[in-house]
Amino acid sequence: MIEETFGKRLKDLRNERGLTQEGLAKELNVDKSTIAKYETDKIEPSISMLKVIVKYFDVSADYMLGLSV
Asked: Which single residue of 1, 7, 33, 56 has CA 20 to 30 Å from 20?
């Protein structure tokens, strides 16, 4: 089984909403390159950004961190 990373889950959630990386970046008030780096697991969000992301997508932090399905 392939591990679902933060980046994979973020990309899946973004696609479910029909958003581009640029669109999500505007919603979260970050650069498009930040979203791209999150999705490719090059960087991880800060705790404060993680809170913003889970509230925006209405998912748990455990889900985003791969601790739950």
From this structure: 1
